[in-house]
Write a structure and sequence with these properties.
- The structure is a homodimer of 139-residue chains.
- In chain A, strands 1-2 form a two-stranded antiparallel ribbon.
- The first copy, chain A, is elongated.
- Chain A starts with a helix and ends in a 14-residue tail after the last helix.
- Chain A has helices spanning 4-18, 27-34, 38-50, 75-82, 109-125, and strands at 54-57, 63-66.
- In chain A, helix 1 (4-18) crosses helix 3 and helix 2 crosses helix 3 (38-50).
- In chain A, strand 1 (54-57) and strand 2 form a beta hairpin.
- Chain A is mainly alpha-helical and 139 residues long.
- The first copy, chain A, folds into two domains: 4-70, Arc Repressor Mutant, subunit A; 74-125, no CATH class.
- Chains A and B meet through helix 1 and helix 5 of A and helix 1 and helix 5 of B.
- The complex binds iron/sulfur cluster (SF4) (2 copies).
- One iron/sulfur cluster (SF4) binds next to helix 5 of chain A.
- Chain A binds a DNA duplex (30 and 30 nucleotides) through helix 3.
Chain lengths: 139, 139
DNA sequence: GGAGAATTCCATTTGCAAGTGGTAATTACC
DNA sequence: GGTAATTACCACTTGCAAATGGAATTCTCC
């Protein structure tokens, strides 16, 4: 399971995508509409800003907005920033690789199985972007 | 990422598969060979026994063993017991479904995306069993 | 039936994610 | 320049997973 933090991040981004190019959005507005604890959401959005996913503006009329077009940011990218590894095991992670002590990879079947699982997940998450979070128009 | 607990469980099961039909295996032996904290491993193996994955024998000559043939137990099954949900979101879990408050699934794109991710993962984990953890013979 | 070997069970500590609170810094507007 | 609105930052609390400690139970073997 993704951490709560990541789930909140995704929801917030969904909201920001829906309001893309409509000016800054208040943290409090996102928090209320998406039922996210306000102060926790502050931390999350700030982290996304530091990683250039979001941009912000202080003071009256300020708020948060996407930094680039939604198509430019993959879900995998977002999850790696907020959650960390996407792989289910440390030793099959592409960006956070870490073997367990005294690893003999040639004798470890677990490794191979979770490489498969990782590739299956990445095949989905690398190919979806924030644009895929945009809500379809009402009929 | 899978929790440490689940990672330990998988490693322990790998060891038990390798010694399938060779009589009971000591917890302490598994802990030492697989570098797992002894007391923590106790809890994990006990939980697996309560869920009929493992069997145990007390006293001298006792220990843990698989309850059935390795082919009978899928990795998905093991993970659900030790870790809980396999899906990345509560609302796309088959066995642990839980929506967030005020869910409007028709308007939520996140949901659909993670259904895809879930199916990709399950396609791997449901079709692998403990038998796939058996080490290939040395050449 | 007693001694030793092993699992089982329960209670506690530790460490980190989740969540909260308060203050500083920045900006817009009059 | 003063005031209100907003993000930014820092420090703390809470809750749960991870890990540990110790005593109870069951079994084997002599
Ligand atoms: S022993 Fe197996 S699971 Fe551990 S790091 Fe090596 S390959 Fe990965
Ligand atoms: S709002 Fe979306 S993410 Fe939340 S429970 Fe409903 S479908 Fe799932």
């Amino acid at each position: 399971m993704l951490s709560k933090k990541t789930q909140y991040a995704l929801k917030a981004l969904e909201y920001l995508v829906a309001h893309y190019n409509q000016g800054p959005v208040l943290i409090s507005e996102i928090a209320e509409k998406k039922h996210i604890p306000l102060k926790f959401l502050e931390n999350i959005l700030l982290e996304l800003r530091h990683h250039d996913i979001l941009d912000s503006k202080k003071g009256k009329g300020g708020g948060y907005m996407l930094r680039t077009e939604p198509e430019k940011t993959s879900l995998a990218n977002v999850i790696r920033i907020v959650e960390g590894p996407i792989a289910m095991l440390p030793c099959v992670s592409l960006y956070f690789y870490q073997p367990c002590e005294s690893c003999d990879q040639t004798q470890c079947r677990i490794h191979d199985l979770f490489i498969e699982a990782r590739d299956a997940i990445l095949n989905v998450l690398e190919n979806k972007t924030l644009a895929d979070l945009r809500q379809t128009a009402l009929v």
